[in-house]
Amino acid sequence: MTISGVARPSAMLVAVAFAACAGTGQQGAVPSTGTALRSPSREISWMGKGVKEQDLLYVSNRDGVVNVYRYWQHTLVGVLTKFKSPLGECSDSAGNVYIADGQAQKIYEYAHGGTKAIRTLDDSPYLPEGCAVNPKTGDVAVANYGQGYYKTGNIAIFRRASGKPLLYSAASYDHFVACGYDRRGDLLASSTFGSDPYYSDFYYLPKEGVKLLPMDLPGPSRSWYWSSGVSVAWDGRYWVVGSYDTLFRYTINIKAYYVSTITLDASINEAAIYHPVEKSHSEQLVGADESATKPAVYYWNYPAGGSHVAEITKGLDRPYGVAVSPGTP
Amino acid sequence: MSKPDAKRYLLIVPILLTLSACNGPSFSGPPEGVTSDRSATSATRWAGASRIDRRRSWVSPDLARTHSTFLFVSDSGTADVYIYELPTLKVVATITGFSQPQGECADNKGDVWVTDTDAQTIYELSHHGQLENALTDSNGFPDGCAWDATTGNLAVMSLFGTGSASGAVLVYAKGSSGFREYWNPKQYYYYFGGYDAAGNLFFDGRDQSGNFILSEIAQGASSARTIPLTGGTVYFPGMVQWDREKKDLIVGDQSCGDSYVSCLYTVKVGAKSGTIEGSINLKSYKGSPICDLVQGVQFGKQVAGSDNDFCGYTPSTTYVWPYPAGGAPTHYNSATVSTPVGAAVSP
Questions:
Q1: Are B131 and A257 inside 8 Å of each other by CB?
Q2: Domain of B320: which CATH number?
């Protein structure tokens, strides 16, 4: 894996640039991508029938659309539209999906297979980039990039996914990009700072924590440093932190301990881990490669990694966030 | 309060290391105030004890299955906290990742707070050893704590401050990361403490000359006062705990009789002073006196804690003794701790 020298700006930086070019300032306006005529199917939200029982995969795109796929069949079954810059996504155990809309400074909650947001969390004046749902409490944590590149980000926690958030701040230079909860309700968050090269900080908010604790995540070698830690997930046993085409697994209690490395055959932003209900299905990892030349969503066996076992390549526009929403059996 | 000069501050670090049970090769003698005629016998042992445990935490499956009462013991030599099942003293978890864990206290949830002196942090561990919360002591070096059942507040004894300042008591309001500081102007070093049922905080320490001081912050008071002791002399601060049944204070002396022996005193606290009414002698499993019980914890009719045996009588060992009888232990585990310091019981 080559990381040094590959300075990838935050999705928010790109989103800011995109929004500035697009010039759309109103929620509900059809976002412009600067591309030629789009399919009508990407102008209005729609959802196919019979998806309630299906496990669904939500993928946010740069063009302001969130694609919804049947998880196993990889077929497009719906789209959610009129976002300004949909970025990170997360889901709860009931299948509700939360979509962080950076430029809108809002997080939208959709019921599994729904086409209209059932709840909107006001995150202004911050730019939300990632989110996670506390499985114990239903709280929604939001990784806020900040009010722009020169303004500090924070972690916002909406108690029971409503109201005004509690804000947890860290160092003045930190822009939060991702966060995740474990089964106990401990939170791990990643931030980025600097500019070419980018660096990452990590913070931990234990279950009963009242402040973010700086958490050093050691790499696989002494010389390791984080040029960018983007994704944070909990796999049921370990913390999984992704950086480009590599995932690192950790345990955390007082300090973080490196467990293992998983190498992928593509770089991804956000990672979602699929925990199958049926034992006949294996655990999988899903992530989106936002490259402009070959945007794709990849599936890997987890924790094996390696070569992907499935991919989605059609109908994507520099995809960023992914979330798996379990269907109702 | 007078501030120590820089030269004085330089002497504090060795004292801190001594309190934390003599980190390895840097050890140069027993606790300040006692003679060093036995220190050479333990030099090899301390060298081994200085190894910091770099491994991940280990938790036995038994810990999650059982509803036992647990004893948490901090070990500044390995930088671990060991969780023992009571009264058997079977180790059911080793919690790693600390820098210099020292004094401990428990709250009504069964969570145990562990002061990490070097990290200037106070960690809250669940009954099962999981990190629940962490508080920062940005002004000093925490080494003891007490939890107030009347308010849910946490009091932290900060051994001494940064920048040559004296220690202090920091009171963190329930659910808050901020603290309010309290001082006894006569006290310089702050060690261990305990609340009584009315929310009065008692804590011990030493003045700048090294003399023992027992202090109190009465419930609602804005500063601490000295409690003069009669009926005996305490030489080096140890545990402080309120005995709810007998309504007296248990005060430990790491240098009982100004020697290499630890003992406990029961102190009746009056309006203006305290009276030492009894002493409790503790024995090792070999029948020798306990060398250095830094912090013990009383629970019911027992008291538990670990002997940091730099005297060389036995390996450092964790014990349960009858209380208030003392004497020979009812249970012990001599295979775990290296340089133990703090103790707390999680019911």
A1: no
A2: 2.120.10.30
Reply yes or no on whether the pLDDT at A148 is more than 80: no
Predicted confidence at residue B48, as pLDDT, reads 37
ipTM score above 0.90? no
Q: What string of DSSP letters covers A215-284?
A: -----SSTT---S---EEEE-SSSEEEEETTEEEEEEEESEEEEEEEEEBSS--SSEEEE--SSTTSPPE
pLDDT tens column, B187-230: 999 999 999 999 999 999 999 999 999 999 999 999 999 999 99
pLDDT tens-digit readout, B40-81: 222 222 333 457 888 999 999 888 887 899 999 999 999 999
Tell me if B70 is assigned to some domain: yes
pLDDT for B67 equals 82
Q: Give the domain ranges of chain A.
A: 11-325
Please judge whether A210 and B133 are an interchain contact, meaning their C-beta atoms are less than 8 angstroms apart.
Answer: yes
pLDDT at A136 over 80: yes
Nearest CA in chain A to B178: A210
Q: Which domain holds residue B329?
A: 6-346
**A interface mutation test: which of B115, B131, B136 has the most A CBs within 10 A?**
B131
User: How many domains does the structure of chain B reveal?
Assistant: 1
> Which residue, B47, B32, B41, B28, is CA-closest to B314?
B41
CB contact under 8 A, A252 and B135: no
Residues B327 and B312 sit within 8 Å (Cβ to Cβ)? no
Domain-embedded: residue B1: no
Query: A211, B134: Cβ pair inside 8 Å?
Result: yes
pTM to 2 decimals? 0.84
**Residue pairs between chains A and B whose CB atoms are closer than 8 Å:** 50
Out of A184, A208, A257, whose CB is closest to B56? A257
Which of A203, A254, A260 best probes binding to B when mutated, by most B CB atoms within 10 angstroms?
A254
Q: Is residue B102 included in any domain, yes or no?
A: yes
Q: Indicate the average pLDDT of chain B.
A: 87
Look at chain B and count its residues: 347
Fold of A11-325: Neuraminidase (2.120.10)
Cβ distance A257 to B133 less than 8 Å, yes or no, reads: no
B227 part of a folded domain: yes
A288 neighbors A69 (Cβ within 8 angstroms): no
